[in-house]
Amino acid sequence: MQVNVNNPRFLIYALAFQAIVCLLIVFDIPYFRQVLGFIFLAFIPGFLLLRAFRIEKQHLTEIIFLSVGLSVAFLMLTGLVINEFGLFGIISDPLATGPLLIGINIVVACLCVISYFTNKNYKGLNSENWGKFWKYLPFLILPVLSLIGLLFIFYFNSNLFLIFVIVFIVAVFIVTALRSKLSSYYPLIILSIVLALLLSSALISTYMYGDDIPGEFNRFMATKTTMIWQPQNYFTTQQMSDNSMLSVTILPTIFSNLLNIEPGYVFKIVFLVIFSFVPLGLYELYRKQWNEKIAFISVTFFIANYVYFAALLQEAKQMIGELFYVILFLELLNNNAKSYKSSWMIIVLALFGVVVSHYSMSFIFVLLTLFVWISGKLFRNSIKRINASVIAFSSCLIFFWYLYIIPAGPFYKFVGVIKTIFGNFASEFFSSSSRGADVQIALGLATRPSTFHYIGTYLYDLTILLILVGFIVFVLAWRKKKVNSEFGLMVFFNVVLLISTVAVPQFSGLLELGRLYQVILMFLSPLFVLGTEAIFKFILKIIRPQRTFNRNVEKRRTSIAMALILIVLAAFFLFQTGVIYEVTNDPVPSSSSLSYYKLQSSPWLIKECDALSAQWLSKYGDVSYVPTYADTVSYSHVIVAYGMIEDDLVFLLSNDYKNYQNPGLTSHTSNFANASYIYLCQFNVANQIVQWYTRGNITYPFSEVPVLNSTSNFINRIYSNGASEIQLEIPKNP
User: Fold this and answer.
1) Of 605, 639, 634, which Cα lies nearest the Cα of 207?
2) Which residues contact residue 268 at a Cβ distance below 8 angstroms, ignoring those fewer than 6 apart?
3) How far apart are CA 440 and CA 58, in angstroms?
4) Strands 713-720 and 628-630
5) CA distance linking residue 727 with residue 680, whole number of Å
6) Rg of the chain over all Cα atoms, to the nearest angstrom
7) pLDDT number for residue 660
8) Closest Cα partner for 42 from 320, 328, 365, 329?
9) How many angstroms separate the Cα of 416 from the Cα of each of 291, 494, 511, 651?
């Protein structure tokens, strides 16, 4: 039964909810402001856009997924427009709570009225679906158990409960996949599993950790502090690239200011919840190509990869970019003629979203759609939705944003990678080192720390081989016209990308291997299921051959093959989450949560003492004129994220005084002529060493670092919190 949402009550309810959220924000009612405010911002604008443009979807999962994606795009676009008023001097502090609250609510109120009067026959909601939604809520127990597991780690220094939770997750998806009656539960179970995994990885620390997210956090804090996004506000190439992305500048500022959330938790909770909807979009994409069971197992394989639930949390841009990437292909592969004319709004907003969220995924999208369009013309395949208009619009949008709005930056970075690939192709083709450390580990060429790590690597390689086998099965079905032509070409393109990461030198520089593989898996995850099923069926036919076709025997083989697929997937899941390594007492940390007690002496996990010392230096030090020295990890993680010291005034501690000496900033006025700050994190002080190249484990003792061991300078400790220290180096008078 369809819900009649076109009577006046719908308009009243929508505006009433909006008014309640406004009051919660104005009077700053804790908890309610955060929870109801997030629901309003992350769902209502997108749902109103679907209704206003008469876009009807039959499945509740797709409605929710598109509503979240369109809401995020709406927030970035509206925030950008409001920010422009600030750049032209019309509004001061345009990204402050007041201007954002007024601007967003005016547009949402207009959407409420427009959607009510322009769509009198909307059938996008189904009362039975909503009834099931509330009925299924008990399945969200997994995230709660995951949080309890973290509490056990923090207060009892025990990961046993969290190990139990992960094993329980394995049991849940196995039982769910084996029982066809539970197919209606698939979307909520996927969401529950995803949230449990993401929460356990992200909330293990209140501070940013990873390679890219400290820089993204730096640009976010710069935007939040000034209350305006300034496109030209950058100092280095990486800052330029991060600053060009609204996903890490305007979007987190909107959530932080309107919901009154601590900046760190915007990335660790708000972005995490948004990112958890990506598998739901993939489920809808796979379901339309195959069936619910294959879609469910394929999505489970996608989220079982370590990159999704752990490594990708260090890349806020890609978390948001993947949301729009999935929306684009969900719509472009929709051959429903009825929704063709109305879905242009979704495609345009999703294109805007992916361009201003993640530059690498924007380039991949254009290359992929261009390949599909050209291939369709050459081989006369039926290509309906991907046409010259989509490619031209996306290319122009990328060109306009990356060259006109943000000169240089991402575009020149992309061109540089392409030049490196072609320039060194012949000379480095036979060199394994040109593929990068991650590729060597994946291929088993690098040394692994233990036997179980070798097993985990081989199992990882096995899944890739199964994907390639699945591709052969897919091509055979494609030739029989059992597969959508556009989807088939997209799968082919991503298989080429997968092979290129190994065959082409420096190719992984386009996007770090793990993150590139994550993008590729969006199309190739179902091939794992197809390949594994084909192999197990082949083995079963050899064991018990049948001379004549028997439907019951074939059905039994399919059921057995599916059960065996789940066994392989369960083993892969347990290795990727680090459960196997922890149970076998492996000394090498394999998970930020399960191995938390092993990471206490690691420099990669930011300590509170390190963040406090960096903030003290930024607040009380003369850092705008006096250079700061720090080792590699302290600079890239702590100084960038929490010190907010500009890159051109930070130098690396090294044993080479000639290349890393005080630059002598004579053009500036400082309280300390030719002085330098020396930042030492807890790891430096405790071990009396500085880190130079972490992947190669190159470190230097204090005695070999000229800046720390110079007789021509006075060195005075100006700050210490018992762990981290800051020293001031002043040259002696001649």
Assistant:
1) 605
2) 202, 203, 206, 313
3) 45
4) unpaired
5) 8
6) 27
7) 47
8) 320
9) 42, 22, 13, 25
Whether 586 contacts 450, CB under 8 Å: yes
CA distances for 599 relative to 411, 509, 576, 614, angstroms: 37, 28, 18, 21
Sites in the chain below the pLDDT cut of 70:
1-8, 119-137, 233-239, 335-342, 380-383, 404-449, 481-482, 502-513, 546-551, 657-673, 694-696, 711-712, 733-734
Token code pair at residue 561 = 């093959």
Q: What is the pLDDT at residue 547? A: 59
pLDDT for res 664: 40
Instruction: Quote the pLDDT of residue 429.
Output: 44
8 A C-beta contact, residue 25 and residue 37: yes
Are 582 and 161 within 8 A, CB to CB?
no
Give the chain's length: 734
Burial classification of residue 126, based on how many CB atoms lie within 10 Å of its CB (0-12 exposed, 13-18 middle, 19 or more buried): middle
CA proximity to 331, closest of 645, 140, 55: 55
Residue 98's φ and ψ, nearest 5 degrees, are -60, -60
Report how far Cα 108 is from the mean position of its chain's Cα atoms: 27
Neighbouring residues of 432: CB distance < 8 A, sequence distance ≥ 6: 440, 445
Tokens 């679907």 belong to which residue? Answer: 50
The full DSSP string for 11-36 is HHHHHHHHHHHHHHHHTT-TTHHHHH
Copy the structure tokens of residue 161. Answer: 């409960």
> For the chain, what is the total number of helices (H) and then of strands (E)?
32, 7
Q: Give the whole-angstrom CA distance, residue 164 versus residue 168.
A: 6
C-alpha 124/C-alpha 342 separation (Å) is: 14
CA angle 154–160–166, rounded 5-degree value = 105
pLDDT score for 669: 40
Burial class (CB in 10 A: 0-12, 13-18, 19+), 529: buried
By the 8 A CB rule, do 316 and 216 touch?
Answer: yes
Structure tokens at 32: 């309610």
Contacts of 170 (CB under 8 A, 6+ apart): 570, 573, 574
- Residue 90 to residue 94: CA distance in whole angstroms: 9
Query: What is d(CA 567, CA 581) in angstroms, rounded to the nearest whole number?
Result: 18
Measured CA to CA, the distance from residue 57 to residue 175 in angstroms comes to: 29
Q: pLDDT at position 659, please?
A: 46
Neighbouring residues of 401: CB distance < 8 A, sequence distance ≥ 6: 244, 355, 356
Burial bucket for residue 86 (CB in 10 Å: 0-12, 13-18, 19+)? buried
Where helices occur in 203-313 by DSSP H, the ranges are: 213-226, 237-243, 250-259, 263-265, 271-275, 278-289, 292-304, 306-309
List of long-range contacts for 702-709, beta carbons under 8 Å, 24+ apart: 704/655, 705/653, 705/654, 705/655, 706/655, 706/656, 706/657, 706/661, 707/629, 707/653, 707/657, 707/660, 707/661, 707/662, 707/676, 707/678, 708/653, 708/678
Alpha helices (H) in 341-387, listed in sequence order: 344-355, 359-379
Query: What percentage of the chain exceeds 90 in pLDDT?
Result: 37
